[in-house]
Design brief:
Elements lengths: L11 E3 L6 E3 L3 E5 L3 H6 L10 E5 L4 E2 L3 E2 L8 E2 L2 E7 L16 E8 L2 E2 H9 L5 H4 L5 E2 L4 E2 L10 E6 L2 E7 L7 H11 L7 E3 L14 E6 L3 E7 L1
Parallel strand pairs: 3-15, 5-11, 6-17
Antiparallel strand pairs: 1-2, 3-4, 7-10, 8-9, 8-15, 9-12, 13-14, 13-16, 16-17
Length: 228
């Protein structure tokens, strides 16, 4: 391909136990997937249809030092199960075959400029700038699915400066991984390299410069870092 100038590097993240990298195609995010978080954000949880938004692929970051973004005074953490899709995508998505698309699991943070989001919501405007900024998707290495067995009892948690902020079982999700993949497949052509951030439990709160965080998908993946 004869490009007018060199294209940016492919966004990628590590794979646990491998020297290979996982190329990121798109980042899909599920909103309001834990009932108590929906309520703390002023919405009543519903089993209607999942709510989706997106982040750019190059929002992923695996450095231990996460830059505090500009244009905000209210950066919030949202710890999430991250589902990584591999090449085994079904031609026709069904409840029986949807999970064959899962390459592995990770834990990540959906960082949010909450003040920008709140202002946009009040004016009924899009809130892409609140969610899709640079380095807004810190994520651990992906653990391949054959090494990562998640269940309804698997705990998702986040500590900030050694204090528990968020903690819930995956069974508390309103929409399961299968539910979400089926819904996404009707809206988009899912591809190998897609990441799906599955929503956050209650307890979201502000992060300040100098805060240290530890996110964990129990027995599977951990993510450590500092806001700088």
């Amino acid at each position: 391909m004869d490009y007018a100038f060199p294209p940016p590097d492919q966004a990628s993240i590590g794979i646990a136990g491998s020297s290979k990298r996982f190329p990121v195609h798109r980042i899909y995010c599920v909103g309001r997937n834990f009932a108590e978080h929906a309520r703390e954000m002023g919405a009543e949880p519903s089993r209607g249809s999942p709510v989706f938004f997106m982040k750019p692929a190059d929002a992923v970051i695996q450095d231990n030092v996460i830059p505090y973004p500009g244009c905000t005074e209210d950066l919030h953490h949202e710890v999430e199960l991250v589902v990584a899709l591999g090449p085994s995508l079904p031609e026709q998505w069904t409840t029986e075959n949807a999970l064959q698309a899962v390459y592995g699991y990770a834990v990540g943070l959906d960082l949010t400029r909450r003040d920008l989001q709140t202002a946009a919501k009040e004016k009924r405007l899009p809130w892409d700038t609140a969610k899709g900024f640079d380095a807004s998707a810190p994520v651990s290495d992906i653990v391949p699915v054959h090494q990562a067995q998640i269940t309804a009892d698997t705990l998702l948690s986040l500590q900030v400066n050694g204090i528990q902020r968020q903690k819930a079982c995956l069974g508390d999700m309103i929409f399961s991984v299968c539910d979400v993949l089926l819904a996404l497949s009707k809206l988009y052509t899912l591809q190998p390299g897609d990441l799906v951030f599955m929503g956050t439990p209650s307890g979201v709160a502000a992060l300040k410069e100098g805060d240290r965080f530890q996110a964990e998908l129990q027995g599977i993946a951990e993510l450590h870092g500092i806001i700088h």
